[in-house]
Structure formats: structure tokens, C-alpha cells
Amino acid sequence: MVQLGLVVAQYDKHGAVIEAMRQSASAAAADHDADVVETVTVPGAYDTPLAADRLARREDVDAVAVLGVVIEGDTDHDQVIADAAAQGLTDVSLERDTPVTLGIIGPGMSKDEAEARTHKGGSAVTSAIELANL
């Protein structure tokens, strides 16, 4: 059984997208007989690499899935945040030799587009499980 760490970025200025992503992630874990041993919540997507690193260091965590949403704003800030989070998570995965999957949707999305992509929470968990089993 794969033991997962889950990082959830709480910032969601438009409502229930994060909760739907979390439900999708939980369903995917159950479907693949994986166990989420720890869920860490952080304020936003930018904050996810540190939490992912802490989970990836644990002996009881085989892989980490990260969930979040970055909605388009009035400036390029959404792109900066998403790029920094993606690079930070890639660095954690390579430095810890532990799969860390990117389930942060965005940037450049509207609220409706984000709501249509909440299944990506499950995709991030499924990818983490597959990588852990390699």
C-alpha cells in the first residue's frame, strides 16, 4: 500500500474549488488502495514546496501530492506564483528522490475554468501512486 502525504493550498478566493479537489484526491487514493498518512494545509500555492519537503523527508511517506488553485488576476502575479510553486516542487522531488506531483491548477484560469478542472486533485494522487510504485 502506498503511503501518501497531501499538501493543500487553502487560498481559493472563489469558493469551493479546493474542497472539490480534495474530495477528488481522497476518492483517487481510495480507488488505488493508498493511504493518506498526513495532510498539511498551507495558506497558498507559493507555500507548498516547504510543506512538500517536510512530508517527503518522512520515512512513512512514499509520495506527496500537492493541490491548489491559482486564478487569473489583474496582473502577472498568478503566473509568478504558479511558476515558483512548480519549480520549488520539482526541486523537492529531485532533492528528496520522492515523487511530488503538481496538482495546482492554473494560472490564467477563470473561476469557471477552475471549477471544471477539480478532477486534477485525483489526477495528482493517481500520478503520485504510480510514481511511488515504479
UniProtKB/TrEMBL annotation:
<dbReference type="InterPro" id="IPR034964">
    <property type="entry name" value="LS"/>
</dbReference>
<comment type="similarity">
    <text>Belongs to the DMRL synthase family.</text>
</comment>
<dbReference type="GO" id="GO:0000906">
    <property type="term" value="F:6,7-dimethyl-8-ribityllumazine synthase activity"/>
</dbReference>
<comment type="pathway">
    <text>Cofactor biosynthesis; riboflavin biosynthesis; riboflavin from 2-hydroxy-3-oxobutyl phosphate and 5-amino-6-(D-ribitylamino)uracil: step 1/2.</text>
</comment>
<keyword id="KW-0686">Riboflavin biosynthesis</keyword>
<dbReference type="Pfam" id="PF00885">
    <property type="entry name" value="DMRL_synthase"/>
</dbReference>
<dbReference type="InterPro" id="IPR036467">
    <property type="entry name" value="LS/RS_sf"/>
</dbReference>
<protein>
    <recommendedName>
        <fullName>6,7-dimethyl-8-ribityllumazine synthase</fullName>
        <ecNumber>2.5.1.78</ecNumber>
    </recommendedName>
</protein>
<dbReference type="GO" id="GO:0009349">
    <property type="term" value="C:riboflavin synthase complex"/>
</dbReference>
<dbReference type="GO" id="GO:0009231">
    <property type="term" value="P:riboflavin biosynthetic process"/>
</dbReference>
<keyword id="KW-0808">Transferase</keyword>
<dbReference type="InterPro" id="IPR002180">
    <property type="entry name" value="LS/RS"/>
</dbReference>
